[in-house]
């Protein structure tokens, strides 16, 4: 008998009010110091258990034309701090061997030690080699020699080839390190069209067929020995376009790799086709599926594709205590040219057979959407006259535009990626979404001589939070409304979330939000340090572009003005 | 029975061969860094291409002190006066070149520990150039003493060829002398601004 326990669930959603008690948080900062380097790459807890250490970088070596000439090299500095975030030591990290410049790829914590991964492009062998070495975070030096672990092909003609790269991460159970490698591949050049073809503005639809997507992977165990490896693993996908990307991957306790990739088929219509079909858009998203492939250490593979007909916006992979694969996804519907999130899904696959054991889906609840959907918010604020005008305008819309507007009203319009996903101690899945959108502001200045200068600034807005929790067949939903944070550069991570002791702790750019696992009691705290009025002696003004959650109760963030820095430590009680 | 046993052995060998052979981590990492390029050169012997325009054969030797600093000494022999600065600057329209030489000393700082084969550098250079020429049957001597700030880029071409492109900005001290009774008597001196552009080609040496 087929081992399939499929549970189709009628929507069972509890909407809760967004309770607003206050958290107790201490905000302290360390001394102000002059930073070597321009920005922080990462900060870690010291392996000694007391204090922290960080890494910063800058580019050096620009000569004739300064740094703008691209002939520069990244140099790295390490800083160590005490528990109060006062600088103890700052020194340069040397990654040069015999005149060869090694590039830093990643630092990972593994088996309580810190390991640094460095790469080198050997043009003679046409390969990029990856090395690892243990990093002494007390002395901020490399401890012992490097070890070569992986390699990918490079090209001597980078303009015609894709960039080779490594992707390094530690498995969730912290038993394995996985390295994905991608060779440089020859880029397909678009064929130049003739003059008349250019005039017709014909858009070609991507070819749909069977495509092979290749990559190499290495799995290292606790002894840093390779336990699973395959060169140019081929992922063959039928009914696909030539575009496929790995969204997420994970490793189970037995060293098997799970790759989650997105496969989308978008039909691009010509202007004439769009006119003939009376369509409001020129794209038709026909498929947006995720492909899960399990690669066992013996090389055998199994594959599952997300249910047909469902358009998934985003998906994450997690393992529960039994080792079963949990796929947490955002369901989408097409609104003009893109997919908008209208629901959440949890799929559970058996670890061995990859048979579907459970499927739970839920639409975003009406009450939640009333509070976070921009269109609904605007409509609620309309006066009678504005409402009458809206009705008049809607009469002129095409049926497709009316349909899109209807979908847009029941969607989380600006939440298109899973910002966080995790499983609590009971194995219940939690998804956190953050509304994010980009605003482009172009300003033109005119000086006294009549010369004009146009400046374009990108503002990244980080807005409300949406929380969803899957408990067996139920889906709980709640939201947290916050005054949106706008920054003029994209944050590496906008929120950090930890799950522990029955509480969800969410650290946003300006707020700390804490909820119980039932999403009922939500407490928050607005961080004062991010307010410009809160001054640090020695810093004329403060800029925050980096932040890291060290544990459930501790967040570290550097306040920076040019080269001067003071680290803030936020502690939740 | 024998056949069955043989079949089992064959199957076993086939299966063992079909298993994925795992690569090993290699502690001898230095061999992977050998790309044939002499990036760890100790010295650079080079010739100035731009100095040829002034008729100088300028040969320099740059020695690496550490990964950041280097010192360069250079000597130049003037063989002609292709661009005759004396005629341009000081009105000796029909001057005839007789002889000349030059010496230079430069200290350099390289960024990103890239001395002396890669990336950019800045430095200070002192240079003296002396030229004897004849004008209306009188022999003159012109001496340029330059001290300037220089900024440039070094390149490694192929495996060991060096290339260098730099500009300089500083002061030039000019002296003119007229030869009387086998002695040069300096009767003119001036200080001016120096703007300099240099192109050099050479060869990296590893001791």
Q: Would you kindly provide a written description of the structure presented here, covering whatever features stand out?
A:
The complex is a heterodimer of chains A (about 575) and B (about 210). The longest helix of chain A has 12 residues, at about 385-395. Chain A is globular. In chain A, strand 36 (about 550) and strand 37 form a beta hairpin. Chain A has about 575 residues and is mainly beta. In chain A, strands 1, 27, 28, 29, 30 and 31 form a six-stranded mixed sheet that branches. Chain A is built from six helices and 38 strands. With about 210 residues, chain B is mainly beta. In chain B, a hairpin with a 4-residue loop joins strand 2 (about 55-65) and strand 3 (about 70-80). In chain B, strands 1-2-3-4-5-6-7-8 form an eight-stranded antiparallel barrel. Chain B has helices spanning about 1-20, 85-90; strands at about 45-50, 55-65, 70-80, 95-110, 120-135, 140-155, 160-180, 185-205. Residues about 15-20 of chain B have low confidence and may be disordered. The longest helix of chain B is centred in the N-terminal third of the chain and has 17 residues, at about 1-20. The chains are: A mainly beta (about 575), B mainly beta (about 210). At the A-B interface, strand 9, strand 10, strand 12, strand 14 and strand 18 of A face strand 5, strand 6 and strand 7 of B.
Relevant terms:
heterodimer; A: 573 residues; mainly beta; six-stranded mixed beta sheet; five-stranded mixed beta sheet; 6 helices; 9% helix; 52% strand; globular; disordered N terminus; B: 207 residues; eight-stranded antiparallel β-barrel; 8 strands; 11% helix; elongated
């Amino acid at each position: 008998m087929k081992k399939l326990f499929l549970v189709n669930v009628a929507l069972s959603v509890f909407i809760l009010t967004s309770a607003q008690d206050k958290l107790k948080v201490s905000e302290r900062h360390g001394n102000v110091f002059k930073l070597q380097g321009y920005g922080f790459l990462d900060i870690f807890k010291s392996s000694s258990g007391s204090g922290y250490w960080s890494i910063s970088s800058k580019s050096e070596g620009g000569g004739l034309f300064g740094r703008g000439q691209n002939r520069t090299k990244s140099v790295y500095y390490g800083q160590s701090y005490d528990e109060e975030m006062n600088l103890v030591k700052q020194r340069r990290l040397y990654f040069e061997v015999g005149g060869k410049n090694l590039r830093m790829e990643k630092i990972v914590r593994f088996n309580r030690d810190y390991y640094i991964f460095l790469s080198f492009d050997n043009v003679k062998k046409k390969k990029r080699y990856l090395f690892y070495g243990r990093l002494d975070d007390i002395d901020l030096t490399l401890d012992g020699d490097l070890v070569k672990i992986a390699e990918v092909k490079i090209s001597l003609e980078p303009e015609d080839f894709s960039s080779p790269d490594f992707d390094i991460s530690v498995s969730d159970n912290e038993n394995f390190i996985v390295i994905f490698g991608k060779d440089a591949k020859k880029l397909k050049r678009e064929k130049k069209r003739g003059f008349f073809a250019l005039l017709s503005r014909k858009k070609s639809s991507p070819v749909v067929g069977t495509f092979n997507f290749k990559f190499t992977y290495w799995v290292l165990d606790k002894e840093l020995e390779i336990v699973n490896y395959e060169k140019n693993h081929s992922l063959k996908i039928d009914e696909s376009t030539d575009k496929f990307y790995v969204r997420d991957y994970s490793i189970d306790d037995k060293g098997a790799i799970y790759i989650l990739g997105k496969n989308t088929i978008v039909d691009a219509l010509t202007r004439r086709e769009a006119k003939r079909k009376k369509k409001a858009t020129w794209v038709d998203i026909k498929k947006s599926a995720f492909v899960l492939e399990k690669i066992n250490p013996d090389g055998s593979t199994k594959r599952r594709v997300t249910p047909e007909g469902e358009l998934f916006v985003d998906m994450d992979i997690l393992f529960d205590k039994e080792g079963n694969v949990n796929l947490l996804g955002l369901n989408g519907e097409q609104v003009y040219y893109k997919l908008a999130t209208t629901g959440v899904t949890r799929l559970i696959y058996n670890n061995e057979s990859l048979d579907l054991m459970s499927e739970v889906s839920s639409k975003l609840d009406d009450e939640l959407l009333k509070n976070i959907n921009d269109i609904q918010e605007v409509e609620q604020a309309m006066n009678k006259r504005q409402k009458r005008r809206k009705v008049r305008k809607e009469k002129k819309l095409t049926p497709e535009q009316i349909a899109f507007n209807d979908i847009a009203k029941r969607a989380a319009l600006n939440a298109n990626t899973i910002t966080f996903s995790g499983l609590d101690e009971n194995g219940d899945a939690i998804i956190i979404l953050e509304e994010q959108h980009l605003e482009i502001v172009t300003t033109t200045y005119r000086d006294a001589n009549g010369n004009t200068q146009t400046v374009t600034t990108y503002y990244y807005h980080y807005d409300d939070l949406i929380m969803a929790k899957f408990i067996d067949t139920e889906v709980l939903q709640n939201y947290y409304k916050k005054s949106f944070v706008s920054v003029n550069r994209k944050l590496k991570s906008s929120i950090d979330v930890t799950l522990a002791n029955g509480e969800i702790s969410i650290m946003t750019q300006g707020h700390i939000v804490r909820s119980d696992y039932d999403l009922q009691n939500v407490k928050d705290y607005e961080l004062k340090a991010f307010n410009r009025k809160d001054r640090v002696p020695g810093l004329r003004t403060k800029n925050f572009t980096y932040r890291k959650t060290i544990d459930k109760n501790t967040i570290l963030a550097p306040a920076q003005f040019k080269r001067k820095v003071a680290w803030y430590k936020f502690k939740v009680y | 029975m024998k056949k069955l046993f043989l079949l089992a052995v064959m199957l076993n060998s086939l299966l063992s061969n079909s298993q994925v052979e795992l690569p090993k981590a290699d502690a001898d990492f230095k061999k992977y860094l050998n790309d044939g390029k002499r990036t760890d050169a100790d010295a650079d012997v080079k010739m100035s291409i731009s100095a040829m325009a002034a008729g100088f054969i300028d040969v320099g030797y740059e020695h690496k002190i550490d990964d950041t600093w280097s010192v360069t000494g250079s000597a130049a022999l003037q063989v002609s006066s292709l661009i005759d600065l004396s005629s341009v600057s000081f009105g000796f329209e029909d001057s005839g070149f007789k002889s000349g030489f030059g010496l230079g000393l430069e200290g350099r700082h390289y960024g990103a520990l890239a001395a002396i084969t890669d990336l950019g550098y800045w430095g200070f250079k002192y240079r003296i150039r002396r030229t004897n020429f004849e004008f209306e049957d009188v022999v003159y001597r012109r001496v340029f003493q330059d001290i300037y700030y220089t900024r440039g880029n070094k390149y490694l071409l192929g495996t060991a060829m060096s290339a260098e492109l730099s500009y300089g900005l500083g002061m030039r001290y000019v002296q003119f002398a007229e030869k009387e009774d086998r002695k040069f008597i300096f009767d003119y001196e001036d200080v001016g601004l120096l703007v300099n552009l240099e192109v050099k080609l050479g060869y990296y040496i590893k001791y």
